[in-house]
Amino acid sequence: MIVPRNTAHTRQHRRKGQSLIASHRINPEEWQISNAEAKDALNAQGCKVKEIKKIRCLKHQVCISYWDEKGGVCSGFFSYRIFRQWQAEVERLVNTCQTLKEWVLLNHIMKYEFAYYPYLTDMKNLLSNALKNRLYALEASVLLQAV
C-alpha cells in the first residue's frame, strides 16, 4: 500500500520553524574559514588537531580534514555553529533589527536554533543577552516615538 507523503500523520512529526541557514539569513557556505580558525574551533570541540589539511564549506555544515597529534589523517563534518564567525553573523543580525516585528521573527528563529542545534554555553548566553538588549533598545525607541 502506498501512503501519500502529506498525510496528517507525517506532518505532525515535522519540526515547525527554520534554522538561520534554511531561512537564508546566514549563508556560511560562502565563508572563507581560515586554517587557524578551524584549528581553534576543533580543539575547543576536543579534537587533537596538529594541522588542517582541507576545509570544504557545504550548505549546512563544514567538512574538515586534518592531521591529529599522532600524525593520522582525520576528517569530519562539523556545524558552523562552532565558529566565532557564526557568533559574529548572529550578532550582526540581532543588531540590524530595525523594528519589533523583525526582532520577533529573529527571536522565533533563535528559539528554534537553541532547541535543535548544539551551541556552546558561552555563545548561547551571549546571543540570548544580545537579543534581550536589542529588544530593550527597540522598546525604548517605540516609547520615545510615542511621546
Strand content: 5-15%
Please give the count of helices. 5
The side-by-side strand order for the widest beta sheet comes to 1-2-3
SSE series: HHEEEHHH
Profile the largest sheet: 3 strands, antiparallel
| Poorly predicted segments | none
Global geometry: elongated
Task: Work out the number of β strands.
Answer: 3
Our measurement of the CA-to-CA distance between the termini, rounded to an integer number of angstroms, reads: 65 Å
The level of helicity is 40-55%
Radius of gyration in whole Å, from Cα?
Answer: 19 Å
Mean pLDDT: 90
Total tally of structural domains: 2
Q: Which structural class is indicated by helix and strand composition?
A: alpha+beta
Question: What is the topological layout?
Answer:
Blueprint lengths: L7 H4 L23 H10 L4 E9 L4 E7 L4 E6 L5 H12 L4 H17 L4 H26 L1
Antiparallel strand pairs: 1-2, 2-3
Helix pairs in contact: 3-5, 4-5
